[in-house]
Each structure stands twice: as structure tokens, then as C-alpha cells.
Amino acid sequence: MATSVKNNSLPPSLISNLNQVLLSRQQHTIDHQSTNSSSLPSHSRNVDEPGCSKPLLLITNCEGIDSPGLIFLVQALLSDARFTLHVCAPQSDKSVAGHSLTVRETVAVCSVEMSGATGFEVSGTPVDCVSLALSGALFSWSKPVLVISGINRGSSYGRNMFYSGAVAAAREALICGVPSLCLSFNWKKDVSSESDLKNAADLCLPLISAAVRDIERGKFPESCFLNIEIPSSPLANKGFKLTRQSLWRSPLSWKAVSANRHPAAGQYLSNQQSLGIKLAQLSRDASAAGAARRLNSHRKNVEIESVGIAGKFNGQQTVKKYFRLELLEKETEKADDNLDFKAVEDGYVAVTPLSLSSTDQSKIETEVSSWISAALGKEKWN
């Protein structure tokens, strides 16, 4: 570094001394930074490096990155101070997205401030979140130790697993070769509260810690992921119980609604990231609508409000109706105590191993039962 003395009112000798001091300080700073960089542990330099000393966990869910269940889980894991956390979750509720991927459309990703964790919200589905995170396109690491989907509010047991975006996220992790857990809380309307979700997060910590420990030891079951259902009273739980997937399902109720109650367009626009995307979507819809009008110009279109069963129409008339799907609550039935929904209703934490194939299910159940018994102790295992 050189400082010009031209047009400077200070004496040349003082300028020379100042230059020497600045050069000396600059060299000292470089040496100090170099020494610190080589002496710090790898996770202090870059948490994305493969040599990170703390196990790295990927957290996702189906209800959105701002949901209380995810926030309480992240807080509980950070307070444990044994893990490095990356969060990649949907920006909005995708609870019944199933195992759907977003194709032929752009997925927007935005960083989110999460104290102590690296967070991103994704405009796509839970499966998009896991697939993107594990692809290496978003994070520089190749694979986390464990993927956790949760804590999701509402049960994902029985046949609900086929609809559940939460379960699908954990399944996608297994497809990508990463061990995973899906954590769901059996939320009861007008009974449960957010404090129950916090208690559920604390309840899951020993299981998560045991899973990470045994994954690193090569002792965790590799052929399945675990769907864990937490009872509605976490503090009063009776322990962990190995269960089988039941045939239980939330009753589906399709209801006809009037056109002005149809929320799809407003919800779609509110979820867009920018005005440009909104305008592009409006333009595309307008073009498609115009093309449809030209194509069907010879038809007589009839739009009716769906408030009942439509009558029959003659000719080439087109009838447009609107419906809303609601998932109803269903009373539990008498069933085998080892089925997932029955165990949860009885106050147990139900642990259901799910594989990518229906073969060797009994072998998988035996393997998972042995692992949990050893990992958590027999007093917590039923």
C-alpha cells in the first residue's frame, strides 16, 4: 500500500511513518486471520462442509415454514446444541399434497431468518423441498445425517398416509438414500393447544438423538423410515409402541358451493413471489381463456352455482360448478391394539415402519422393534 504525498500538507516524514504503520497492521491482520482459520473446527468455518463436527439434520414439514410445530421442533433441537440444522419447508400449507413434485413450472426459493438454523421456504410441495435440498443445488453438502418431517399438526396414520405431504417428504428422503422420520401430533379440535406441540417436540428429542447416534454407528434400520404419531396429551403418554399401518381414513366430504365462495384464484395470487409472476400468470390464464372461447364459440356455455345437483342439459352446453373438499373427524372404532390409530388413541406414541416395498414387512417390524428397545430402553417401549 502506498499513500501519495502530492498536495498533502503533512510532513513527508510523518506520511512515511503512517504508511509503515498501516502496512504493518495489514500484514498482522492477514496473519491473524490465517491462524484463526486453521485453528477453528471445520463447523465454525462452514457448516455446509462435509467435515462438520455436529451431525447435520434437514427439517421440513407439510404445513409451511411458519407453522408452530416446525418452530418448536427447531427450537428444541437447537437448545439440545448437538446438531446443525438446515430447514427447507413449503412457504404455505401443503398438508394433503401427497407425493407430488412440481414439474414444468418454476419453484421459487427464499431465505428465511431462523435464529441458529439455515432456513429456506419453497413455493412447491414437501417432496419438492426434500428433493431440492438433497440434490445439492440449494445446499453445498451432499447428504444430511437425518431428515425429519414435522412436527405436523394432525394425524398421518392409516390410509391418510397416502394423502399426507408430511409422510411423502420422509418417503422422498428414503428414496434418496437418507434415513428419515415423520413426526405428527394428533391434534384435537377445541382441545389441543400450541403448548402441546412444544411438549411433543421435547418428547421426540430422545428418539431423534438415538436415531442420529445409531445412524452414525450403522445400527439404524436402513430399509424403512419411521412414521411417528404423538398422542394428543404428550406429557401423559404411555410410552412408544411399534404399530402397523391401519385402514383408517378421514371421511371425505365434497360440498357444492357458490362461485363467489371459490377461493382458488385469490389464494393462488397471494402465494406468488412478485408482481411479475402474477402478471405472467394472469397473461397465461387470459390467453388460455381466449383460446377456449374461440374453440368453443359454437357452443352455448352455461355457468351455474353449485348449490345442489345439476339438472340435465341438452346439446353442447357446458356446465361449470364449484366444490370444496372437507376432511371430517371420525370416531375411533374397536380394533387391534397394535394398529397405529388405536395405539395413539390409547395414549401411546405409535411408531410405524414404512418401506418402499410391501415385502419383508414382518422382518422390518422386528428390526425396528429391536432398535427402539435398545435405543430408548425397555421401560419406554411397549
From TrEMBL:
Metal-binding found in the keyword field: yes
UniProt record similarity statement: Belongs to the SurE nucleotidase family.
Key words, A-Z: Hydrolase, Metal-binding
UniProt-listed Pfam families: SurE
Entry coiled-coil feature ranges: none
Highest taxon of the lineage: Eukaryota
InterPro entries listed in its UniProt record: SurE, SurE-like_Pase/nucleotidase, SurE-like_sf
SUPFAM superfamilies: SurE-like
HAMAP family in the cross-refs: SurE
Name of this protein: Survival protein SurE-like phosphatase/nucleotidase domain-containing protein
Positions of the Survival protein SurE-like phosphatase/nucleotidase domain: 58-248
